[in-house]
Amino acid sequence: MNGHRFHIDVIGKTKIWFTISGIMILIGIIAMFVNGFNWGIDFTGGTIMEFKIGKPFDTKDIIKILNDYKVKDYQIQKIGTKGDHVSIKTSPISDQTRIAIIKEIEKKYNLTESDLIMSQQVGPSLGAEIRSGMILALVVASLVMLTYLGIRFNFEMSLAAVIGLLHNVFILISVYAVFRITVDSPFIAALLTVFSYSLHDTIVIFDRIRDNLKVMRRADYAEVANVSVNQTLVRSINVVLTVLIMLLLMYFLGPKALKDFALPLLIGITWGAYSSIFISTPLWVLIKNREKRKKASVKAAKA
Q1: N or C end of the chain: which has fewer CB within 10 A?
Q2: Can you give the pLDDT at residue 225?
Q3: Strand (E) or helix (H) holding 295
Q4: Are 145 and 161 spatial neighbours (Cβ–Cβ below 8 Å)?
Q5: From CA 260, how far away is CA 183, in angstroms rounded?
Q6: Which spans are transmembrane here (predicted)?
Q7: Which of 97, 121, 145 is the last residue of a domain?
């Protein structure tokens, strides 16, 4: 039962793993209070313009037009099934500048007024709604995961798993705060994706722990956890590497829209694999050992 390729003492180094994560999250919290987040246009408000170009085009031409009008912050994205539409989001600009930019783009691509699909100002209230929606989604998802894992495994495992998921969220947010990476809609989508995907490895490890508890009856929780982690380590590495290779290709070879989505996934899934092994599993051992000591003290008190 104990035959496996790796013999890593994960539980014996619990303090090291917790310290690494604690330091990263602490640095992130300090960065949040000192510098705040680099909120994207979706959160700060601005101008949205959408055109039907109707033919292949180079976004560099649109970037040149925006630069000519001294627009500092902007996001340009090809959309539509054929990629012949363009969505332009900019920081707040005057109506005069917006109209001038529209005319320049229409002139560049020989467009008519009917090719202007959208042109409107967006206030920061939309960003507040997105933030509150994200927090609500994380709270609801945490409760659902806690309930589901509690039914499938037990409360101790479900609590350790959900704390691991929240750990991934805090790490991802911390990285964005420290390096001042733009927080926009793709980040929110990636954050929620990471939250759900990170659970996969944890379930695999906990499933093996549950099986090993039945056959390793004389072993303590730390030994059972170590054996279970080492038995599933090759599988975990292979699965994570497969996903990370695809994400790296998306980030380095894909368009900007894919890069904005791939970057938080790269960070989140990497730390998700880390937390399944080095956070959630040791946390389960701590909870079980605490529960064991509590039962022993109660038994001693009755005696």
Answers
A1: C
A2: 96
A3: helix 281-302
A4: yes
A5: 9
A6: 16-34, 133-151, 158-179, 185-206, 233-253, 265-287
A7: 121
Predicted local confidence at residue 282, as pLDDT: 97
Q: What does pTM read for this prediction?
A: 0.82
Domain containing 63: what range?
A: 45-121
| Average pLDDT for 258-263 | 88
Residue 262 neighbours by CB under 8 Å, 6+ apart = 247, 248, 250, 251, 254
Residue 298 in any domain: the answer is no
* Tokens of residue 249, six digits: 């290709």
Residue 86 bridge partners (DSSP): 51, 78
- Output the CA torsion sign for 177, 183, 186, 189: positive
Average pLDDT, the chain: 89
> b/e per residue, 254-284, with b = 16+ CB within 10 A?
eeeeeebbbbbbbbbbbbbbbbbbbbbbbbb
Mean pLDDT on 112-127: 83
Q: Identity (one letter) of the amino acid at 150?
A: G
Distance CA 282, CA 221 (A): 10
Q: How far apart are CA 119 and CA 117, in angstroms?
A: 7
Pairwise CA distance, residues 180 & 148, whole Å:
35
Q: Which residues contact 213 (CB under 8 A, 6 or more apart)?
A: 224
Sign of CA dihedral 286, 287, 288, 291: positive
User: Of 75, 92, 121, which marks where a domain is finished?
Assistant: 121
